[in-house]
Amino acid sequence: MTESWSGGTFGERARCLLAPNPGLMTLDGTNTWVLREPGRSQAVVVDPGPVEEGHLDLLDEETGDVGLVLVTHHHFDHSETAEELGRRKGCPVRSWRPTYTFDADPLTDGEVVEVDGLRLEVVFTPGHTDDSLSLLLPAEKTLLTGDMVLGRGTTVIAWPDGDLGSYFESIERMRDLAASGSVETLWPAHGPVLDDALGVLEYYLVHRRQRLAQVEGALQQLNIDKPDLEDEELPRKVVEIVYQDVDESLWGAAEWSVRAQLAYLAGR
User: Fold this and answer.
1) Is the domain of 31 the same as that of 110?
2) What is the CA radius of gyration of the chain?
3) H-type helices in the chain, by residue range?
4) Beta partners for 115?
5) Are residues 221 and 168 both part of a single domain?
6) What pLDDT, on the 0 to 100 scale, is given for residue 1?
7) In terms of residue numbers, what domain contains 238?
8) Backbone angles phi, psi at 131, to 5 degrees
């Protein structure tokens, strides 16, 4: 039985307010992270999420003084309310893409963001999308992963916005942070927190490489040497071979990831 997740308080600096948008792709909903240095007034809000059922009003009421809103990537279930929350709180909104940044500059890789004593480091981790980033919170030895790592299952890579080569590089970078001792826990944007950061990230690499090998095997069964990315029927054929152990309700999402795998194998 899958354990339910409803957010809560974590470490000395974090509160997770769960958005009411559960679904196949969002699990229990979007995790909006509210970060504040102990004893300080201003908070940083990460992934304010969608407009569903008054989530914006909840954030407005529950977050108090906000100095900065951050967005881990452009998908609407993370970014939809960002500008409006920034306007209500009178603070800037920052993300990797300029179009999701308001009254500030876009974030840059390795940048240190400080708000009222709270210190975050930007780690550019494309793969799930081309603008995905993670946020290192050194004081908690945690990494806010956006959708690069989920609290349950594994993330979807929807090519061409998602890219498998970039994904491998980013997960390896995240794993290196865990191996160095800088990161012990992962706080994802969907699903529960993960206490074994290194184990989870190593599993992600192994799992995705196993799936890639299975896709290669499926192509061999289909007598295809190099995948034709213009063949609209090919991803479904591969899914039917590789994802026989997965509920068919998830095959649509699996097709997206297979497209990314086929593009990787085709050298695109």
Assistant:
1) yes
2) 19
3) 55-62, 76-79, 82-89, 164-179, 197-221, 234-242, 251-265
4) 118
5) no
6) 35
7) 208-265
8) -120, 15
Convert the pLDDT of each residue in 31-79 to its tens digit. Answer: 999 999 999 999 999 999 998 889 999 999 999 999 999 999 999 999 9
CA count, 13 A, side-chain hemisphere, 75: 22
222 with 105, same domain: the answer is no
Q: What are phi and psi of 147, to 5 degrees?
A: -100, 5
Q: Is the same domain home to 188 and 102? A: yes
Cα–chain-centroid distance for residue 239?
Answer: 23
Strand 93-94 versus strand 66-70 pairing type: parallel
CB atoms within 10 A of CB 240: 13
Strands 133-137 and 142-146: antiparallel
- Total domains in the chain come to 2
The CATH number of the domain where 78 resides is what? 3.60.15.10
Q: Are residues 121 and 64 in the same domain?
A: yes
Strand 118-124's sheet: what is its strand order? 112-115, 118-124, 133-137, 142-146, 185-188
Q: How many CA atoms lie within 13 A of 85 on its CB side?
A: 38
* 29 shares its domain with 141: yes
Amino acid at 71: V
